[in-house]
Amino acid sequence: MLDFTVAICTYNGANRIKQVLERLHSQVNLQGIQWEIVVVDNNSTDHIQQVIDDYQKSRFSATTLRYLVEPQQGVAFARLRAVQEAQGNLVGFLDDDTLPDETWLANAYKFAQTHPQAGAFGGQIHGEFEVEPSPEFKHVAIFLAIVERGSTPHLYTKVLPPGAGLVVRRQAWLESVPQKPFLSGRTTQSMLTSEDIAAIVHIQKAGWEIWYNPEQHLYHQIPAWRLERTYLLNLVRGIGLAKHHIRMMRLSAWQRPLAFPVYLTNDLIKTVSYFVKHQKLLKKDLSTACQMELLTSSVASPFYLWSRHLNLKK
Q: Which of 121, 109, 103 is nearest to 212 (CA)?
């Protein structure tokens, strides 16, 4: 076994992944750390394999940089494949549009050594924007996995880190996360997200701690189209529609039927109240529209998931 596997799950990311690989080639303070990179191609139709071939010849060896194809669509399946194939005791997930700073890997490895009960931990994710976002964007930044929670490490409880930049102990993942995830991640057939949160909840429920490590810095590349209203509302809708599943995961089987009407009633009250207070801002204020979308999608979540489950069984 190696010490660390960097897992990059990608879909049509041939042009984006080059920057990630360059940043990994420039990592520092790696003395004594045995590591590798595994690229999991989730059915891309671009020239991603050629890009990896080129980097195996110019920057990394074929054993240090490995290329795999995961045919089942969805980032949840790509991450599962990455963990299964990883040779590292730690697995750090990078997206093909997240750039680690030069000490990311070393600081992640160091944190794991000083926090042996951490089954998973994330760091700081900063936004790098193609166009300057509007001032109201700060209220919706979390939906684009921008995480800046200060300079002090802390234990996560209910709020959990996103999958981008997440580092997990391979043992914790293999022992805790199901091989058939209910949430697969966004695909052309599904808008559901939160597949990363679902995996972390499984690890947390198994007794592992989830931490925030402020010394891990990533830079999320955000093109202009990801700041558009339509995209952000669709993204928030996917998060809201997955909420019922995440909530039920945290509860025992006997608690779920009792908790469902409580959650539903509370969501309905919040949604109606928010609409009454903010209806005049919905069309002109992005953060208000996103919050409204999150609330309405949360109300719809159990019914959407039940319908989806029935359709999958047909």
A: 121
pLDDT in tens, 155-171: 998 899 999 999 999 99
Domain ranges of the chain: 2-226, 231-313
Angle at CA 33, nearest 5°, toward 31 and 34? Answer: 125
Burial class (CB in 10 A: 0-12, 13-18, 19+), 179: exposed
Label the pairing between strands 88-95 and 118-129. unpaired
Residue 152, pLDDT above cutoff 80: yes
Superfamily of domain 2-226: Spore Coat Polysaccharide Biosynthesis Protein SpsA; Chain A (3.90.550.10)
pLDDT tens for residues 279-312? 999 999 999 999 999 999 999 999 999 988 777 6
Identify the three-state secondary structure at position 60: coil
Contacts of 148 (CB under 8 A, 6+ apart): 124, 125, 126
Tokens of 233: 């509302």
CA 200/CA 167 separation, integer angstroms: 10
278 near 295, Cβ under 8 Å?
A: no
DSSP 134: P
Q: Global pTM?
A: 0.95
158 close to 195: Cβ distance less than 8 angstroms: no
